[in-house]
Amino acid sequence: MFTPKIPPPDTAPTPATSLVPPPTGLVHPPACTCHHTPTVPAPAAPARPAVRFTPGSLLVAAGGTAVVLVVGTVLVSMLLAVAITAASVAVYAVVLRSLLNRPNNR
Question: What is the pTM of this model?
Answer without folding.
Answer: 0.44
